[in-house]
Amino acid sequence: MASLSHLHCLKPDSMQHGLVCKIKCFKQKRFHLADVKFLWALRTPKQHYIHWKDRPFFPRLAKYRNSGSILAMVWEGPNAMKTGRVILGETNPVDSKPRAICGNFCIQVGWCIIHGNGSVKGAEKEIKLRCKPKEPADYRSCAFNWAYE
User: Fold this and answer.
1) Which domains can be identified in the chain, with CATH numbers?
2) 140-145: average pLDDT
3) Range of 8-17, 32-41, 90-99 with top mean pLDDT
4) Does residue 115 carry a catalytic annotation?
5) CB atoms within 10 A of CB 39
6) How far is CA 144 from CA 31, 84, 140, 141, in A?
7) What pTM was estimated for this model as a whole?
8) Does the structure show a pLDDT above 50 at 2?
9) Which of 8, 32, 48, 115 is catalytic?
10) Cβ pair 64, 12 in contact under 8 A
C-alpha cells in the first residue's frame, strides 16, 4: 500500500499548543499509521524546502521549522493522499472548509500548524528524508482486512 501513503508533520507551534490529539481524524477515517516519529526540529530544512530556497520568506521558514519538535506521521490507505488533503484543508486557513484542521486551528498562512504532501511523488521524497530504509515498519492490525477490500 506504499503508493497510497501520505506524510503529515505537526509543526512546532502545534506541538507547543498540544494539538497532537487532532490527528484522530485520520484514524477515524481508518487510515493505517505506518510510521510516526517525534523529532527535534527538521533535520533537513533546506532539502525539504529546496523549491522555496530563493523566496524572501525562506530564512524565516527554516528558522520556524527548527524552533521546536515536530511529529512526522506516515498514513496509508485507499485515497490517503486526496482524503488527507481534504482533512488538512487549504494552507490558507481562510480558504479551508469547515472542520478542516487548517481551518479550525490555523490563523495565518505563514504559521500553518500541519504539513501534508500535495502529491504521491512528494510524499515518497519526504518519507525517504524521515524514514530509514527498513521503515516504515510493516505492521498491520488484525482489523486491517476488515477495513480494506
Assistant:
1) 2-131 (3.30.70.141)
2) 67
3) 90-99
4) yes
5) 12
6) 9, 18, 6, 5
7) 0.73
8) no
9) 115
10) yes
